[in-house]
Amino acid sequence: MVTSGQRYFKVKGDTIAEAFHNLFESFPQLRIHILDESDSIRQHILVYADDSDIRWTEGLSTPITDCQELTVIQAVSGG
Question: CB–CB of 47/70 below 8 Å?
Answer without folding.
Answer: yes
